[in-house]
Design the sequence.
C-alpha cells in the first residue's frame, strides 16, 4: 500500500505497514523534512516521509525486498541512507 498527498508545499508519503507496535526510527533532514522507518527486528516493514522524496523512493524499494536495516544508521543524518542497509 502506498499513499501520498501534497500538504502546504511538501509531499507526505506513506507506504506499507505503519504500526505503533513496531520500532520507529526517525530521520530528520532539515527544519521541515523528516522520515520515520518502521522496523520489526531489523527488517523494514513501513515508512513515511514529509519531503525527502528521493529517500522515500529508496526506502519504498527496500520494502518489497524485506531489507535488513541498521536503526543506528537510520537516525544519523551524517550517514547516507543507502549505508543503512545491512548486507
Sequence:
Amino acid at each position: 500500500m502506498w499513499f501520498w498527498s501534497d500538504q502546504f508545499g511538501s509531499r507526505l508519503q506513506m507506504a506499507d505497514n505503519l504500526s505503533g507496535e513496531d520500532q520507529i526510527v526517525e530521520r530528520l533532514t532539515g527544519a521541515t523534512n523528516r522520515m520515520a522507518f518502521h522496523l520489526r527486528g531489523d527488517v523494514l516493514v513501513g515508512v513515511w516521509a514529509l519531503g525527502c522524496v528521493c529517500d522515500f523512493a529508496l526506502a519504498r524499494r527496500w520494502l518489497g525486498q524485506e531489507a535488513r536495516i541498521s536503526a543506528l544508521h537510520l537516525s544519523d543524518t551524517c550517514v547516507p541512507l543507502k549505508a543503512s542497509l545491512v548486507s
About this structure: The chain has two helices and five strands. The longest helix spans residues 53-63.
